[in-house]
Amino acid sequence: QEVSKNPPIEEEEEEEEEDEIFGSTGFEALPLSCTRAAVEKMGFSKMTKIQELAIPPLLEGKDVLAQAKTGSGKTLAFLVPMVELLSKAKFQQRNGLGGLIISPTRELSLQTFEVLKELEPKQSIGMAMGGTNRRNEAERLEKGVAILVATPGRLLDHLRNTRFIFRNLLMLVIDETDRILEEGFEDDLRGIISILPKHRQTALFSATQTRRIEDLARLAVANPVYASVASES
Ligand code: ADP
Ligand code: MG
Known about the structure:
Elements: H1 2-5, H2 7-21, H3 36-42, H4 49-59, E1 64-67, H5 74-88, E2 99-102, H6 106-119, E3 125-128, H7 134-143, E4 147-150, H8 152-161, E5 171-174, H9 177-182, H10 186-195, E6 201-206, H11 211-220, E7 225-228
Helix pairs in contact: 4-5, 5-6, 8-10
The protein binds adenosine-5'-diphosphate (ADP) and magnesium ion.
Adenosine-5'-diphosphate binds near residues 70, 71, 75 and 76.
């Protein structure tokens, strides 16, 4: 009898939760090229709402300010367009850095890198983060890393002190922007943005909408498309 008391309520909550996250179309609705097979292989039947909102404008080359709660599939929302962009541009190793993802922590960088590995079989991909061997990273960057996932402090260090090519950067993504700002990396972010080439596509992703993101956005993005999924909590 105890068993029958609670489950119905939990189920209802779960459904509401799902309604908040998932959209109505599948990835096949998107004009994908090089990432199509990898995305299909992941086996997701529907896109999440943030994926539906953010991927199309990003594929069109627009800047995007995206906000949706944790667990709503933001990683694919920026990695798919980035990998597609480099492929379409026929980006070469000698062009240096083409796509850059800034992420607040080592753990989140690693998670993003794991998804990137599934999507990007061709380009060289890499990570740069505090607490790892700086020299090894520098050597890899000098050889050419097309897509880099990096934490702010270490990235700024490389931009200042490592001789690698980043003038051809096509796309910058700042992931978990709210958290990066909360954790005191605002100056690093501003420093990074001031060094990176201005001609690029930019997307800011976060779980919450804050005033500080708006301020940073003024510095980093141009005429952005707002992709925001409101959440109950
Ligand atoms: P966020 O960055 O918004 O916190 P993640 O990108 O880490 O979310 O994704 C959370 C989980 O959802 C991951 O396990 C991911 O594989 C899964 N996921 C991503 N897109 C979809 C989708 N369209 N359908 C089902 N699961 C998805
Ligand atoms: Mg995330």
